[in-house]
Amino acid sequence: xxxxxxxxxxxxxxTSQILxxxxxxxxxxxxxxxxxxxxxLAVETSCDRAGLGRLLRAxxxxxxxxxxxxxxxxxxxxxxxxxxxxxxxxxxxxLLGDPAMWRAWGSLTDAVRSGGSAxxxxxxxxxFDHLAGDPGLSTLFNTAMGAGTGEVAGDFVRxxxxxxxxxxxxxxxxxxxxxxxxxxxAPDAHxxxxxxxxxxxxxxxxxxxxxxxxxxxxxxxDFFDAVPEGDLILLKGILHDWDDRQCGTIxxxxxxxxxxxxxxxxxxxxVPPGAGPGAAAAVMSDIAMLVLTGGQERTxxxxxALLAASGFALSAITEPLGATAxxxxxxxxx
Length: 334
Ligand SMILES: C[S@@+](CC[C@H](N)C(=O)[O-])C[C@H]1O[C@@H](n2cnc3c(N)ncnc32)[C@H](O)[C@@H]1O
What we know:
This protein is an alpha/beta fold and 334 residues long. Helix content is 48%, strand content 17%. The chain has helices spanning 5-10, 12-24, 27-32, 38-44, 49-62, 90-96, 99-105, 108-114, 118-123, 127-132, 135-159, 177-185, 197-200, 203-210, 244-257, 280-292, 300-308, and strands at residues 65-68, 71-74, 167-171, 190-195, 216-220, 230-236, 258-269, 312-317, 326-333. Helix 15 links the parallel strand 6 (230-236) and strand 7. The longest helix is centred in the middle third of the chain and has 25 residues, at 135-159. S-adenosylmethionine binds next to helix 11.
């Protein structure tokens, strides 16, 4: 078989599984402090020496490790495979290799052919119901989302002046990474994080690091029922999880809860016109939404219409934050 760019794409899931396996076996963490010879690494990771040698050779070809005179070392490209590294993909890779996620991607054909999320076709229930019944996977999901948000939180508070906010409500705020950045940048604001009980379970330590407990509240709840009142309402990575009808319910709850002078900020990738290279991140994320939740990424026009149908006017949109595809869409109640 000729190894063309198309071959590389076709075997993309093999690449994903190689990275997942390295992370699952603890290879990047073992190399974090410095290079190690393969024999030592096999002992540290409790692996078969020959099998690990083949994995290391594949990781070398992918450019995430390199051979030095002191043994195998992580490259710059490979460093985000470690947990705690800025922009870490550690939790995301563990998540991608989870059997339920693996099965969901294997059901993309069903989602394209008959609609609905591939996850539901594969597992028989929606992703968030599945997470509610699997605390380990829920923790992983929450950590992976928080790591992604950590990449944009600093850029967010630099791009949008949050200092005038009185009550900031982060809807579906996950592990609190975004709200923590806002509370640090807006010392007079009070923060409320709404998420499901399992989603919010790990938010307190993140928020405690940013601000004393009197400055924030964790509100376990369902954003399809109601959301807490505030003058700055954040929806990051929420609307893209849901279809237009479900987004309408969330947005109408936000419209009821927002102060007359308030602002609703939607942080999402936006699908640009055409399918040039700049569209890749948003378009790939759109397919991930089709697989995982049945949601979708949207164009500016689609967001404008969605917001207008729930009593919001789209008033501004930023450039993508940092190296990500996430933009801030500002909406005012009307
Ligand atoms: C894609 S994650 C985004 C998390 C966070 N906003 C971020 O960007 O890092 C979606 C979040 O919505 C939460 N969620 C899902 N359904 C919910 C519901 N019905 N009510 C409240 N939270 C929900 C999940 O627990 C999860 O934390």
